[in-house]
Design a protein that fits this description.
By secondary structure, this protein is mainly α. The chain folds into 2 domains: 53 residues, no CATH class; 128 residues, no CATH class. Helix content is 51%, strand content 11%. α2 packs across α3 and α3 runs antiparallel to α4. The mean pLDDT is 91.
Length: 211
């Protein structure tokens, strides 16, 4: 019996004593440079398939992970990222992760505060209502309640924004100081944690415990 790999159908062993669904009595052809020998179940025969798994090529400077049957296309080259380019790419990726995380932190807080997703049009309506309350366009009780709720929410948002900005500056300084592993670790921990951090002090404590 001749054994082939279950998924790729690539020849693994000739004259094996193993008997299974992925074996056949049909003898395989001789090995051929640049090709893998695979069993075609539909036609019940062995066939050659292009095999570039040992080749090193790059697409957009990223190494290509060839699989059986993959060909070398015209847009693949031997050019790869230099150490300097890889470093700059890592810096950019970290900075992008940091900005994305900070935006999400603020978005999540606003959602928890407002109980719904904040949109530009909603923010404009709230601000307009607040301005109208300042001009006493509603009755006295409603004016006072609208102004109070607006100012309470605004103060909470300012506290959280200060915390997020402290976090952003702290991590940015780590990146500038080339402490990339530490910065990446903290970004991942903050992103993956469900700790409710709303003040600069709470963030300072969190960072001190997780640095």
């Amino acid at each position: 019996m001749n054994l082939y790999e279950f998924e790729t159908k690539e020849l693994l062993e000739i004259n094996t004593k193993v008997i299974s669904k992925n074996t056949t009595k049909i003898s395989p052809p001789k090995r051929k440079e640049g090709y893998a020998i695979c069993f075609n179940l539909e036609e019940n025969k062995w066939e050659y398939r292009v095999d570039n798994r040992d080749k090193i090529y790059y697409l957009n400077k990223m190494r290509v992970d060839f699989k059986i049957g993959d060909i070398i296309s015209d847009d693949m080259t031997l050019d790869k990222y230099t150490e300097s380019e890889l470093y700059e790419k890592k810096i950019f990726s970290l900075q992008l992760s940091l900005i994305t995380l900070c935006d999400k932190m603020q978005e999540d807080f606003l959602y928890s505060l407002l109980k719904h997703k904040n949109t530009k049009s909603q923010a404009e309506r709230y601000h307009d209502k607040y301005q109208r309350a300042l001009l006493n366009e509603f009755d006295d009780i409603d004016n006072a309640l609208i102004i109070k709720n607006h100012e309470v929410a605004r103060n909470k948002i300012r506290i959280v924004v200060d915390m997020i900005e402290y976090f952003r500056i702290t991590i940015s300084n780590m990146i500038k100081a080339n402490d990339l592993l530490k910065a990446n670790t903290i970004i991942n921990r903050v992103r993956d944690s469900h700790v409710n951090i709303t003040t600069v002090l709470e963030m300072k404590i969190f960072l001190s415990k997780n640095s």
